[in-house]
C-alpha cells in the first residue's frame, strides 16, 4: 500500500501539496543501490583511498554483474538485433530486479506492487517505442497495423483490432508484473501472520509449527526466484 510519509504545502506554488510516499522513497533507494553496486563492484576493498582502483582479478560480484550483462546482451541481440538499446534494457532489468529483491526484506516496500508504477513503466516504454518507430519508419510505421494481403474492405476492422492489441501490450506487461509480485507478497504475509500466532502458543504448538515454517522458508526462496524471473520476463517481452 502506498502511503504518504511526509507532506508539505508550498505557499509559493498556490498551496500545492508535495508529499513523499514510501513508493518514491524506495525508488530513490533502489536507484541509489544500483549506482552504489556498479560504483564499488570489482574495486579493491582493502584500499582505504577514496578513489579505489579496479582489481585485475574479478571477484564474485564482478562475475555476477558480467553474467547478468551478458544475458541481457544476448536478449537484445537476439530480439532486437541492435545493441544501441542495451543500456536502457539493462538498466530496466536491474531496476525491476533490485526493486523486487528489496521488497522481500521485512518492513520494506516493493515498488512493483504499485499498479501505478508497473503500468506507468509499461506505458512509458510503449510511448517511447511508438516515438522511436515513427522516427525510424516515418509514415510506413502505420503499415505494421495492416497485415499483408488484407482485402480493402477489412482494413478498417483489422486496423482497429491491431491497434487495440498494440495498446493492450502495455496493460498486460504492467499487470503481469504487478499481479505476480502482489500474489507472492500477499501469500508471504498471510503465512507469516499465521506462523507468528502459532509460535506464540505453547511448547507443543511451537514444535509442530517448525514443519510449516520450513515450507514458509521454501516459499520465500521461491519468491526470490520469482523476483528474478519477473524482471527477466519483463525485459524479454519489451524486446520482443
UniProtKB/TrEMBL annotation:
Pfam families: ATP-synt_A
Family matches, as SUPFAM superfamilies: F1F0 ATP synthase subunit A (SSF81336)
Keyword Transmembrane helix: yes
InterPro entries: ATP_synth_F0_asu (IPR000568), ATP_synth_F0_asu_AS (IPR023011), ATP_synth_F0_asu_bact/mt (IPR045083), F0_ATP_A_sf (IPR035908)
Keywords: ATP synthesis, CF(0), Hydrogen ion transport, Ion transport, Membrane, Mitochondrion, Transmembrane, Transmembrane helix, Transport
Bilayer topology annotation: Multi-pass membrane protein
Record keyword ATP-binding present: no
Entry GO terms, CC: mitochondrial inner membrane; proton-transporting ATP synthase complex
GO molecular function: proton-transporting ATP synthase activity, rotational mechanism
Transmembrane feature ranges: 12-37, 84-103, 109-134, 141-161, 167-187
Localization: Mitochondrion inner membrane
Gene3D superfamilies associated with the record: ATP synthase, F0 complex, subunit A (1.20.120.220)
Record family assignment: Belongs to the ATPase A chain family.
HAMAP family the record matches: ATP_synth_a_bact
Protein name (database record): ATP synthase subunit a
Organism per entry: Caloboletus radicans
